[in-house]
Write a structure and sequence with these properties.
Blueprint (H helix, E strand, L loop, with lengths): L2 H14 L1 H36 L6 E5 L7 H8 L6 H10 L3 E17 L2 E11 L3 H4 L13 H5 L4 E4 L1 H7 L9 E4 L2 E8 L5 E2 L2 E2 L3 E5 H7 L8 E6 L6 H15 L11 E4 H44 L1 H9 L4 H38 L7 H27 L3 H6 L2
Parallel strand pairs: 3-9, 4-6
Antiparallel strand pairs: 1-10, 1-11, 2-3, 2-5, 2-10, 4-9, 5-6, 7-8
Length: 409
């Protein structure tokens, strides 16, 4: 039998029992919908994290009190560390030779900000040194400028604001040169950044950046965390050497014994990306296992329905074999029916899963991305399930004795 004839016979058998065929597909549809939706969302999220959240350049690193915490013991150990200080920053910035640039910053402190009748109750105000913008590649797009080292040292009340802050406080007007209030203190706006989105877990468009000495004088508490952003002098090749030199310098400053762990943590682009890969991979595996249950159930349903179909069509199989159909023709026929059923469920599941992922993206802004690879994965996976589920019924049909099959009622 030719493949065209096998296809016609398989399609005729599927159309003869439309409702049963549809109910057979439900398990496959649910499983593929879940897998495609999850993979689409995780793929989009991975790309978003790499492009928007993990914004450290490959030749940069952060010196912080905590670093990356992987266990309860590491957390308890990090809690015991003293905060990084301004005095240590001054010593490191002048004593470590492998730095091309270094900045100190105190982030993630919310303060009320207002201009006239416009008020924002909880705004992220960042105190940083003058080269903060250069190290993190912040851009005003020609809308003013960032403060200078002289303005920082003189503790002048100037500020650079994010795009969302500009829109909220200064709608339809240029904020440059205007005076805004940060927790009751006046600050002259000297620049506003272009829209950038999130980076390192915080929305840059909702920042107010002020000189560190002003921040230190007016808003800094003794236990406030201080972080150092450092750019290695020799680029990516010099990153490890710069980290080692900073580590040795801080261990000496804090009189840390060679037996004890580092008194600070270090964050690099590779570490952040590896941490995210571990999180996203674990989430993907868990959700995929859950979705695989539906695919397994769908495969079992297809196998049972095909076994019922073999029993119902025993006489038909006998007639076809009596007329010259070979065992492999009968086996191919039932394998083709099972794979067509499963492939149809896979196609429907891909459409529904892709629509669900894009609907989540449209409704919540949560990143999602449906690629051709995801589509092929969904259809291919469902087809494989159908072939595996149809193997036993196809083999049973092919091994029916011709005489017994012809006598079946």
């Amino acid at each position: 039998m030719s493949y065209q004839e096998l296809l016609r016979v398989a399609l005729r058998a599927i159309r003869a029992h439309k409702l049963r065929s549809f109910l057979t597909l439900l398990g496959i549809i649910i499983g593929v919908t879940t897998i495609v939706g999850v993979v689409g969302i995780i793929t989009g999220l991975n790309r978003y994290v790499q492009e928007k959240v993990i914004v450290l350049a490959p030749d940069m690193y952060i010196v912080t009190r905590f670093g990356i915490i992987r266990s309860r013991e590491e957390f308890l150990q990090a809690v015991k560390r003293p905060q990084l200080t301004w005095e240590e920053y001054e010593r490191i910035s002048s004593g470590v030779l492998s730095h091309a640039a270094m900045t100190a910053t105190r982030s993630f402190k919310t303060l009320p900000v207002n201009y006239g009748t416009h008020r924002l109750a909880d705004t992220f105000v960042v105190g940083s040194t003058a080269n903060f913008a250069r190290i993190l590649n912040l851009d005003t797009g020609g809308n003013g400028r960032f403060f200078t080292e002289g303005e920082d040292e003189a503790a002048q009340n100037v500020a650079v604001i994010g795009a969302d802050i500009k829109q909220e406080l200064f709608p339809n007007q240029d904020p440059i040169g205007r005076t805004m209030m940060v927790r009751g203190l006046p600050f002259r706006v000297i620049g506003h950044m272009v829209k950038e989105g999130k980076g390192l877990g915080i929305n840059r468009d909702q920042l107010v950046i002020i000189p560190f000495q002003v921040y230190r004088k007016n808003f800094f508490a003794p236990n406030d965390p201080l972080d150092y952003f450092i750019k290695a002098r020799d680029g990516v090749e010099g990153l490890d050497a710069s980290i080692d030199e900073t580590r040795a310098f801080l261990r000496a400053l804090r009189h840390t014994s060679w037996r004890d762990p580092d008194p600070v943590g270090f964050l690099t682009q590779d570490q952040l990306q590896e941490l995210w890969r571990q999180i996203s991979t674990a989430t993907f595996v868990l959700l995929t296992l859950i979705a695989s249950v539906s695919l397994g159930v769908g495969g079992i349903v297809i196998m049972n329905i095909m076994l019922v179909s073999v029993a119902e069509r025993t006489q038909e199989i006998g007639v076809r074999m009596a007329l010259g159909a070979r065992k492999r023709d009968i086996q191919r026929q039932f394998l083709l029916e099972a794979s067509l059923l499963s492939m149809a469920g896979g196609l429907i599941g891909v459409i529904l899963g892709g629509a669900a992922a894009l609907l989540v993206k449209a409704a919540t802004g949560f990143p999602a991305q449906i690629t051709p690879g995801i589509v092929l994965m969904g259809v291919g996976l469902s087809t494989v399930v159908g072939l595996l589920a149809g193997f036993l019924p196809a083999r049973r049909a092919a091994n029916l004795p011709v005489i017994d099959a012809l006598r079946a009622e």
